[in-house]
Amino acid sequence: MHCPSCGQQQVSLDTKFCSRCGFPLGVISEVLAHGGFLPQLAELYKDRKVFTRRNGMAFSLIWCVFFLLIMTPLWSIINIDELASASAIIGIFGGLLILVSAAMFLPKPAKYFGDTRAGIPGAANLPLTGHQQMPSLPAQQSIPANMYGAPRTGMWRETSELDQVSVTENTTQLLNNDQ
Questions:
Q1: What does residue 130 show for φ and ψ, rounded to 5 degrees?
Q2: Partners of 17 in the beta sheet?
Q3: pLDDT at residue 75 in the model
Q4: 1 near 30, Cβ under 8 Å?
């Protein structure tokens, strides 16, 4: 096992602290032993709450849609214009009031720290990094060795044949002008 902070390889899995940086490794070994999550955290977040910020915002949207798109046309069809306009006002302002109060007062939903790979078939065998283990050497290539030899005649040039390119060539000559 390696230290996630400094990368120092540890002597054994029983090591509680990194010998180089002092990072506590007890929790890291427990996380690795349980497949990437702690069962203690799963017990804490087992109870789901109904009154969360997300549910409040969804309720405000449903409220607005119900009063604007269902109740207002229904009262208009029945020819009760006072209730149609009242339901439109209740839909808009009630939805906004519920939205603002949900955003301000309701708590965020608790995060789930369970094993996210549990629903994927065959994911328990995958490493935690998410990519497959690669062999240490790449596959053997089929390029013959004589291709890597000296260049054939006419396919190479001496370095003395290359022209030196001047840095100031093709630039403006403002420095030569007397001003």
A1: 95, -5
A2: 24
A3: 94
A4: no
Q: Supply φ then ψ for residue 4, to 5 degrees.
A: -70, -15
Mean pLDDT, the chain, as a whole number?
76
State how far the alpha carbon of 39 is from the alpha carbons of 2, 33, 125, 136, in Å: 22, 11, 19, 34
User: If pLDDT is split at 50, 70 and 90, which confidence band does 119 have?
Assistant: very low
Question: Which of 74, 53, 66 is closest to 95 using CA atoms?
Answer: 66
Amino acid at 61: L
Distance CA 95, CA 107 (A): 19
Q: Domain spans of the chain?
A: 1-47, 53-105
Predicted model pTM: 0.42
Spatial distance between the Cα atoms of 64 and 6, rounded to a whole number of angstroms: 53
Q: Alpha helices of 37-170 — where are they, by DSSP H?
A: 39-44, 53-65, 72-77, 81-105
Residue 50 to residues 40, 54, 107, 110, Cα–Cα distance (Å): 22, 10, 10, 11
Residue 61 CA to residue 55 CA, distance in Å, equals: 10
What letter represents residue 73's amino acid?
P
